[in-house]
Specification:
The protein has about 450 residues and is of the alpha/beta class. It is built from 13 helices and 16 strands. Strand 12 and strand 13 form a beta hairpin. The radius of gyration is 22 Å and the shape is globular. The two termini are about 40 Å apart.
Length: about 450
C-alpha cells in the first residue's frame, strides 16, 4: 500500500493535542510525569507522522496489531457501512457481522476449535479461557511460563511472567510459573535445540508432579512468545506439552493474541508445530486493531461442558458489530491480497536475511530469531558471555544504551519496538520489500549507536 502524502505541518495543532493529553490522559505502564507522548497527526499503511510533518516507518505495528497496516480502505469502508446499518446490538442476539466473523475465524483455527467467544481484547480472552478451563476440569491451578505476557487484567497479569506482574501479584491467583525453552539464555544448560526442548519438557513434568496433576486446570503458553522476546520453541516442544496435557487431563491453552492472523506466516502459529490446543486466545490482528476485538476459540469437548450448563461469563460489548465487521473485512483482505503468504515470504527472503546480515556486522547483536514478520534482535554488551546490553528490567540511567538506540532509530525515521535489551522487528504483515529494506537501513544506523556500548 503506497503511503499517502503526509499532512501539512501544523505544530500549533500538535501542541494543543499534547497539552490536552498531558492534562487529562492517564497512560498505561507509565510514571505519568516522566513520559512525553508523540502527538500523531495521521497514519497510512506502514507509516505514521506527527504534526511537524516527520514521518516514521512503524516497525511496531501499533502494539503488534496493525497486521494489514493503518487505514486499509476496504476495512474502513466496512466499518462505515456497518455503522450505517447497525452500530451496536446486545451479545445475546444473532447478528450478521458477529456470525460471519465467528464463521471466518473458526474456518482458520486448527482442529475442532469451532466455537468462538468474543471479548474486547486479549487480556479478557485469557481471563475467559482460564475460567473455562477451571470450570471444565474442576481444578484451580494454572501453569504458565516466566518469559511471557498475557494481559493486564487480574487473572491475566498473574499468569504473565514478566515484571509487569510484580505490583499486582497477590500470590492467591492459583498460578505457578515454569521455565519454557529458550536456548540462547537456557536455564537448562543445553547445547542444542533438541536438548533444550527435552529438558524443558522434563522440567515441566517435574513441576506438574510437585504441584499435583489433579490440581492443575490449564497450561497457558504463547505459541511463540511475543513481548517476552519472540523465542520460537524447539521442534517437538509444543507437541510434548500437548501429550503431557492429554496424559494428566490438563487443558492446553495457546495464546495467539500477538502471533495469530498472519504474523508468523501462518493464520495461527500453532500450524508451524502441528499441534491443536483445547483453547486459542486471539485479538490484535483479527481486525488489525481497527476496533477493539478479541476472543477464545473453543474445542468441541470444552464447548460441550456448557451445552446445558450456563457459562458464567459475558461482556456487554462481546462481538460488537463494528468490531466484527472490521474482522470480516480484515480476513477477506488478507485472503484477497495473500497477506499471510506475503508475511511468510518477506520474512524468509528479506527480513530474516537482512537481520542476520546486520548481526554479522554489529557486535551488539547477540542473536537474531523469528519467523514471518515476527523477529527480535537480542542486544548484548558481550557476545561471548551474552551479557544483555542493559540489565533485566532496567530503567533510568541503567537503560541508557537501549534509550540511545531507540532515539537513533527515531532520528532515522523508524519507530522501534524496544523491550528490555531487545528490539523487535514486527512491521505490518503486508509491508513492502522496499519498506522493509528502508527499516533495515535505519536499524543498521541505530545499531552503530548500540555498538558503542559493547565492552
Amino acid at each position: 500500500m503506497t503511503p499517502q502524502a503526509v499532512d501539512p505541518a501544523n505544530p500549533r495543532a500538535g501542541a494543543a493535542v499534547k497539552a490536552a493529553d498531558r492534562a487529562h490522559v492517564f497512560h498505561s505502564w507509565s510514571a505519568q510525569g516522566l513520559i512525553d507522548p508523540l502527538a500523531v497527526a495521521g497514519a497510512q499503511g506502514s507509516y505514521f507522522w506527527d504534526y511537524d510533518g516527520k514521518r516514521y516507518l512503524d516497525f511496531t505495528s501499533g502494539l503488534v496489531y496493525t497486521n494489514i497496516g493503518y487505514q486499509h480502505p476496504k476495512v474502513v469502508a466496512a466499518i462505515q457501512e456497518q455503522a450505517g446499518k447497525l452500530t451496536t446490538f446486545a451479545p445475546a442476539f444473532a447478528v450478521e457481522a458477529r456470525s460471519e466473523a465467528a464463521r471466518l475465524i473458526a474456518e482458520r483455527t486448527p482442529g475442532d476449535l469451532d466455537k468462538i467467544f468474543f471479548t474486547n481484547g486479549g487480556a479478557e480472552a485469557i481471563e475467559n479461557a482460564i475460567r473455562m478451563a477451571r470450570l471444565h476440569t474442576g481444578r484451580p491451578k494454572v501453569l504458565s511460563a516466566y518469559r511471557s505476557y498475557h494481559g493486564g487484567t487480574q487473572t491475566a497479569i498473574n499468569v504473565t511472567g514478566d515484571p509487569r506482574r510484580w505490583p499486582s501479584d497477590t500470590g492467591t491467583a492459583g498460578v505457578v510459573h515454569f521455565w519454557a525453552p529458550f536456548l540462547y539464555r537456557s536455564p537448562f544448560y543445553s547445547a542444542t535445540e533438541e536438548e533444550e526442548g527435552a529438558r524443558a519438557l522434563r522440567h515441566l513434568e517435574e513441576t506438574i508432579a510437585f504441584e499435583g496433576p489433579a490440581t492443575i486446570a490449564a497450561i497457558v503458553l504463547e505459541t511463540i512468545p511475543g513481548t517476552a522476546g519472540i523465542m520460537v520453541p524447539p521442534p517437538g516442544y509444543l507437541a510434548g506439552v500437548r501429550e503431557i496435557c492429554d496424559r494428566y487431563g490438563i487443558v492446553f491453552v495457546l495464546d495467539e493474541v500477538m502471533a495469530g492472523f498472519g504474523r508468523t506466516g501462518k493464520w495461527f502459529a500453532a500450524e508451524h508445530f502441528g499441534v491443536v490446543p483445547d483453547l486459542i486466545t486471539f485479538a490484535k490482528g483479527v481486525n488489525s486493531g481497527y476496533v477493539p476485538l478479541g476472543g477464545v476459540a473453543i474445542s468441541a469437548e470444552i464447548a460441550a461442558t456448557f451445552e446445558t450448563r450456563p457459562y458464567p461469563g459475558g461482556l456487554t460489548y462481546s462481538g460488537h458489530p463494528l468490531a466484527c465487521a472490521a474482522a470480516v473485512a480484515t480476513i477477506r483482505v488478507m485472503e484477497e491480497e495473500q497477506v499471510v503468504e506475503h508475511a511468510a515470504t518477506i520474512g524468509e527472503t528479506v527480513i530474516g536475511p537482512g537481520l542476520r546480515e546486520l548481526a554479522q556486522r554489529h557486535p551488539s547483536v547477540g542473536e537474531v530469531r523469528g519467523t514471518g514478520v515476527f523477529w527480535a534482535l537480542d542486544l548484548v554488551r558481550d557476545r561471548e558471555t551474552r551479557e544483555p546490553l542493559v540489565p533485566y528490567n532496567a530503567s533510568g540511567e541503567a537503560n541508557a544504551a537501549m534509550a540511545s538506540f531507540a532515539a537513533a532509530c527515531k532520528a532515522h525515521g523508524l519507530w522501534p519496538f524496544v523491550n528490555m535489551n531487545r528490539t523487535h522487528v514486527v512491521p505490518p504483515c503486508n509491508i513492502s520489500e522496499a519498506e522493509a529494506k528502508e527499516g533495515l537501513a535505519a536499524l543498521d544506523a541505530a545499531l552503530g549507536v548500540a555498538d558503542g556500548y559493547v565492552v
